[in-house]
């Protein structure tokens, strides 16, 4: 028996098979223990990296900083936006249709889709009814990935998704206010952070989960995972009721877990809704890393960006789809992963600014 979202009411939500396979291989490590410390802000991470590289920081206003070395300006940053991207790259990060157009011109794989003004709902529904696959609806520009709904198969779901996407649009004057309708593509969601010619960090973004050990009850395993998440420097900032989610989706909390079964404990991958990350920097195939770099370079003047990918296989470029290239994406998750190695993205950004300043 399933509900309208496709969740199995007796055994819990059906996880994306690509995610399940990935977690069985890479999700068994114990989450990183940060010793109770809290996460540094993006500004603090960049400031620390600048000082480690012997550069001087000057605060201009609020969170805006200028970095100098001797008499030369190295660069600057405001929160996690640095001086590395061009004006065109910044425009593309505020308009997904523009970013996709740049990618398409380079022959790079993007999901089929169309964009619509927010008051053209009926036109968008007509487009949706012509699709042969489930749909995704999302804003052309949003904050923290809000407002995206996947796996839409009915008109009612589409209308609800349209309302959610419209409400999540960025309010910036230069943000694209349109909504996107795309074919739903299944895969593992990976964010690769590219600086210059290299992927300096990559995270698989997954729902909160546990893997059954065959001896404890699910309640016991959920309790352990929830405690670890609450203590995490970054994810612990965002409350998530894993018990409530398990009950809501019909998971048998008081039954012994099935050995090696992956249990989904959050509705999605967004860390504000319970999602976590697994560092995959050393597991990505070289062709996939080349694809991420090519996506960054497809945006004129883009010297550093987060590239969002959907992957059937973490080691192969076959079937890979590029979702977005974002120069405003946060990088703190790479410094504070749930599982795997910490990656010093801030240092890579500072060193790239210095390299550019030398011509």
TrEMBL record:
<keyword id="KW-0067">ATP-binding</keyword>
<keyword id="KW-0436">Ligase</keyword>
<dbReference type="InterPro" id="IPR011761">
    <property type="entry name" value="ATP-grasp"/>
</dbReference>
<dbReference type="InterPro" id="IPR013815">
    <property type="entry name" value="ATP_grasp_subdomain_1"/>
</dbReference>
<feature type="domain" description="ATP-grasp">
    <location>
        <begin position="100"/>
        <end position="354"/>
    </location>
</feature>
<dbReference type="GO" id="GO:0071161">
    <property type="term" value="F:cyanophycin synthetase activity (L-arginine-adding)"/>
</dbReference>
<protein>
    <submittedName>
        <fullName>Cyanophycin synthetase</fullName>
        <ecNumber>6.3.2.29</ecNumber>
        <ecNumber>6.3.2.30</ecNumber>
    </submittedName>
</protein>
<keyword id="KW-0547">Nucleotide-binding</keyword>
<dbReference type="GO" id="GO:0071160">
    <property type="term" value="F:cyanophycin synthetase activity (L-aspartate-adding)"/>
</dbReference>
